[in-house]
Amino acid sequence: MPDKIQRFSVKNYFFGVCNLGRNKDVALVSTFFSALAGAAAGFFSSMGMGGGGVLIIYLSLFTDILQKKAQGINLLFFIPVALFSIIVYARKKLIVWKLALPFAAFGIIGALIGTFAAQYIQDDFLKKAFGIFLIFIGIKEVFLLIKSRHNN
Hints:
Layout: H1 10-14, H2 24-46, H3 51-62, H4 67-91, H5 97-118, H6 123-151
């Protein structure tokens, strides 16, 4: 029943809104893992290391949420995490604004194109494309690790 809309309440949040029809113990375990996935995604996002990937993987593999909805949740999740991280990084003077702002501007253009294109792409294709992307990144990281060990 992932498409069923529910009113937000603290009780529903802590006992798992997505756990309708399940017993309370399962809901609490699910809420624990959801909180853990959210914390891990926030941790990696704050370092600019792709925490959204953690969240999308969790939502699409371990819940009944469709890929497109997982991506939408990830986008909403990213806003407060990014704002907080930007404030901290800016205070520590870790942002090169002249370099970052053009990336942000073109990122908005890419987001517009991607949002439009996502309407026409099936969930199964998105899930497979995301998986292939993650495999590619994993293989690249393994080769970089081997290369760095070989150079040392």
